[in-house]
Amino acid sequence: MTKITLIAGARPNFMKIAPIIQAIDKANTYGRKIEYRLVHTGQHYDQKMSHTFFEELGIPEPHAYLGAGGGTQAEQTAAIMLAFEKDLLAHSSDLVLVVGDVNSTMACAITAKKLNTRVAHVEAGIRSFDLTMPEEINRMVTDSISDLFFTTSDFANQNLRRSGVADNQIHFVGNVMIDTLLANEQRFRQPDFWTKLDLKHGDYIIMTLHRPANVDDVSNLESILTAISESAGDTQIIFPVHPRTRKTLEGVRPELLTRLFLIEPLGYLEFNYLVKHAAAVITDSGGITEETTVMGVPCITLRQNTERPETCEQGTNELVGTDPENIKAALRKLLSGQWKKGSIPPLWDGKAAERIVQVLMDLDRKL
Ligand code: UD1
């Protein structure tokens, strides 16, 4: 029997870990035995940033909750490492599996490796080559010490090979985030405010902003919001506000907010209902660009680079950056119906987690 510790810490981890747990449970009903322990670091801790996702996606109660949320980059990383080291020493494991690129991913990978425990990284190998993003540092560090690499794209495979990872460590399995999307598409739920705002399919925009470079500084955020409000015409903009962004919005000129419908962060099912039926998404997230690619929804990304180039080359995503003129041009193109159509990247088919668990079971035979 293989013992695996699964790490989940922040919102974008939860939809990645859910299908892996389901695939393990399924394999176990067929007689294969993987014993797992789910550790929640507590990086995200609000009902709306964490618990809702556990409830909606049927993720079981974590075996351990480390409560290491908040603080600076170093404080948060250190707090997760201190707490996870104790947990792993008390509950030894054959393998620690981390997903994505958040601080919890890197902190737990380092901790595990220093306790001579093997590390598997899901969503390995993607790179923005932009070291001003904390996530890029997390990706590089995690990949530099991982033993098993589960990848979403050939771009990721190439980056890993280029950095010296052996072919037999790389498993191109597809995209676990898309597993969750496809498994839940029929359950997407119209939010209550749909009727109040008289929303119609294809006639509103949904926006998310949370990158430090865009939202930590009032003038950067005002510049983005000015460009959007000047060029969105009558299109309603629904803006679920991330906790990081909420703090800065308090200092933004109120007239820039009148065009926006500001709401608390949404759960998975309501958020993706809104994405699926939107005219477009404006975002600075990486994961959302994968979901819009699969749902075929135009996506305007307010970043200069992406670690997911396939969402632009094959999908519906375009890197627009934050120059106001470029934002306005992108919105003009969108609202005049000129946006490109996309296609779905290979293996983004809802079966990535099953492929991961197959590799883990083969590993079990070798242990
Ligand atoms: C983190 C991830 C980012 C991911 C994002 C999704 C890192 C480096 N960044 O960024 O990759 O895209 O999550 O949301 O790991 N806060 C709350 N309630 C919560 C969670 C956070 O109020 O439930 C507050 C924190 O106390 C902090 C701020 O929001 O003040 C930012 O949280 P943090 O986890 O540091 O980073 P995110 O910006 O959420």
How many helices does DSSP assign? 16
**What's the main sheet like?**
7 strands, parallel
The CATH superfamily title of the largest domain: Glycogen Phosphorylase B
Flag low-confidence runs: none
Bulk shape: globular
Number of domains: 2
Biggest sheet strand order reads 3-2-1-4-5-6-7
Bound ligand species: uridine-diphosphate-N-acetylglucosamine
How many DSSP-defined strands? Answer: 13
Radius of gyration: 20 Å
Explain how this protein is built.
The structure is a single chain. This protein has two domains: 193 residues, Rossmann fold; 148 residues, Rossmann fold. The protein contains 16 helices and 13 strands. The protein has a seven-stranded parallel beta sheet, with helices on both faces. A six-stranded parallel beta sheet has the order 10-9-8-11-12-13, sandwiched between helices. Helix 5 links the parallel strand 5 and strand 6. Helix 1 runs parallel beside helix 2, helix 1 crosses helix 7 and helix 4 runs parallel beside helix 5.
